[in-house]
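Batch manifest, entry 17 of 40.
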Amino acid sequence: MRLLIAVLFLILTGPLAAQETFLFKGIVTDSLDGEPLVGATVTIDFGDQTDFVNEKGEFTFVLPRKKVVAVVRYVGYLPYRQTINLPEENLKVKMRRVENQLQEVIVSGLGSETVKRPVLGVSTLSVKAIEKLPTALGEVDILKGLQMLPGISSVGEASNGVNVRGGTTDQNLFLLDDGPIFNPTHMFGLFSAFPSEAVTSFDLYKGNVPARFGGRAAAVLDVKLANPDLSKFKMQGGISLVSNKLKMDIPIIKNKMGLMVAGRGSFNDFLFPIISDQLRDLKAKFGDGAAKLFYQINDKQTLTLSSYYSYDFFQTEMLGTIGNINASASQFEYSTRNFSGKWFWALSDKANIQTTLVSSYYQPSTLLPENNSDNTVEIKQSIDYQQAKTNLNLYQGKNNIEMGLDVVKYSINPGQILPGMSESVLPLSTPVEQGVEMGFSLEDVIDLNDRTSFSLGLRYSHFLSLGPSDVRVYTENEPRDTRSLSETITYAKGEVAQSYGGFEPRAGLRFSLSDRSSIKLGYNMARQYLQIVSNTTTPIPTSRWKLSDLNIKPQVSQLYSVGYFQDSPGSVFEFSTELYYRNTDNIIDYKPGADFLLNSTPETEILQGINRSYGAEFMFSKKKGEVTGWVNYTYARSLNQVNEGPKQDQQVNFGQWYAANYDRPHTLNASMVINQGEHHDFSFIFTYSTGRPFTSPQGYISYNNQILPFYFNRNDIRLPDYHRLDFAWNIYNPKLRNKKFKGNFAFSIYNLYGRKNAYSVFFRSENNKLNPYKLTIFGAPILSLAYKFTFNH
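Output type: C-alpha cells
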C-alpha cells in the first residue's frame, strides 16, 4: 500500500515539479516626477495573482507561463495594461495622473519618440537638466536654459524675454498653469520669473503649435507647476547670491488631496557693486510665489486650483526726469497676479473633458520721487485678462481628436498719472481699451501606418474691439497725424468698434525612413491681436501693450518648416536639422522719435510692415553615459520692410529691407555634463553669436553749443560678436546621518574667461564731437555658490 501511494504521488506531482517558472519584475513610477508609487496594485491575468509596489516602486512575481496580462492600478492615475511575453527585462511602468492625461499628449517624447511624432519645432528641457548647467549668480533659469537650444535667442544678457525664429518678444505666449505671464523676467531681464523649484515640465512650441493655443504669432511656452505629493510631506529649498527659495508638499487628505506651496525672494542688491561697476547705482528686489491644490474627487474627476504672484522693484538714477516731473530717480514697480482652476472629467477610457477658468492681472508702474519733496508721482498701467475654455479629447482607433472652445476678455489701461500731493503735476488718464477674443479649435493626430502619421489642426479666431472708445479715422494713404484726421467716431460701452478674424490652419506630416529616422513637414498660421508698442530694443516692464483696432491691424504669421530626425540604437545619440521660413504681416515698428508714454493717439507714432525670417537649425545631442550634452548651430535672418505709403514719414529706411533688432545670423551653443558617480558632476556651456544690429549716427550738428547726432538708416551697424564660457561643479548629498535630509552645493563661474561683451553702444558729446562707448553688463568672471536641500518625512 505504501509503495502504491508513493507511485501515485509521483505520477500526480511529477508534471508540477517539472513545470518551468519565470521571474517577472518591474518598477512603477509617476510619469512626470519619477517618484515610486508605493502601494500601487499589480494584478496578473485578471486576479490570478496580486502584488503591491514596495517603497522602492518595485514588484516581483514567479509565474508558471510565458504569456500573461499585467494590470497596474493606483488611485488618481489611469490604469496601465500590457500583455507580457516572458522572459523579458524588467517592466518600467510610468503611470499618468488623471488630470495630466491631456497634458501628456503634447509633452515631447524621449529617444525615438522625437522621430515618431508628426510635429516639428518642439523644444523640451527637463528642470533637472537645467539644474546641472552653469547659472548666473547661482539662479536656475528656464529662459536662459532655452536659449541654449537652436532657434531661440535674446538681444542681450539683460534682455526681457526671448526671440524665437525671428519673432519679437511679445509674439511669444508665456503660460504658467494656463495663466499668461506678460513679463516673464525679473530685474529687467536678468532672471526668469518662473520659479524653477515649483515647475515640473515646460514645452516650447516654435513650429507646429497645437490648435488649442492662440493669440501669439511666433511661439508658445507652456509651463506646468508641480502637483503636490499626496502621500507624504516634502520640503525643499535653496540659498544663492541672488535669492532664497522654499517649496513644500503638504498632504491634506492622504492619496486624495494635497497642497504645493513655493516661494522665492531676492533682497541681495547690496552685492551689485561687487559684481559690476555698471550695477553700482541700482537698487532691485523681487519675489514670487506659487501654490497648487490638487483634489481627487473620484476615480474619474479631479479639481486643480493654481495661483501665482510676482513682484519687482527696480531703481536707477540714470533716467531721472520724465516730462515736466522733476524727479530724483526713476523707480519701476511691477507685479503679476494669476489664478486658474481646472476640472478634469474622464468620461471613459476613450474620452475626457477639461474646463479651465483663468484670471491674470499685470500692473507695471513708474514711480518718480520729486526733488526736495516727500511726494512721489506714479504713472500706472495695467492688463486685466479673463479667460474661460474647455477641451474635449476623443481617442478613436488611430485618431486622437481634440476640440476646444475659449473666450478671452481684455481690459487694458495704457497709462495714467497719479500726482499725489504734487502741485505742479496734473492728473492724466489715457482711454482704457476693451476687447474680446474668441476661438474654436479642432485637431486630429492620425497614425496611418507604422511609417506615416500626420496632425491636422484648424483654429478659428475672432476679435472684437469694444467701446467705450473714441475711434479716429484718417485719410486713406496719408500719414496718420492731425493733418489727415477726418473724423472721430464715439462708441458706447460694449458696442463693437472694429472686428477681425479668420482661420488658422496647422499641419504636420511625418514619414519614417526607418525605425530610427524620419522626415517631417510642417505649416503653422497664427493671428495676434495684442502687442507691445515700444521704441526700445528690448521692451522694458512698463512698455505699452495695445489691442488691435481700426488703425492697428492684427499681426498674421505663416511658418513653413521641414526637418530630418535621426536616432541611434539605444537612443544614446540624436541628430536633427530643421529649415524654416516665416512670413509675418502687419508687424509693429515706430516713427523716429516716437513717444508712447501717456499718448492718447499711439497710432500716429506706429508704422506697420512685413517681416521675413528664415533659417537652418542643426542639433546633435548625447543623452546617456558619463558624458552628456549637445552642440547646435543656427543660421537665421530676420528682416523688416515698412512702407505704408509714398511719403517719408510712412516709411522706415525709405521702404527698403533692414535687419530687425534681434537679427543674429550665426549662433553656436554647446553644453557638456561630466557625471562623476552619485556625488558630483561638472558641466560647461559655451555660446557664440553674431552681434545684434543697432542704429548709429551718420554725423552730428552743432546747435546752441550742443553737439546733436542725426541718423539716416535704421540698424545699419552691428555690435561686436558675443561669446562666453561658463562652468559649474555640482556636489550632491554630502554624508548626513539623517537619510530623510539631502543637500547639495552648486559652484559656478559665469563668463569664465572674462569676456567684455557689449550689451549696447551709446554716444556722448565730448570736445565738440560724439564719442562711442560700450555698455557691458557682466565684464568679468562671476563666481557664485548656491545650496539646495530636500526633506522627505
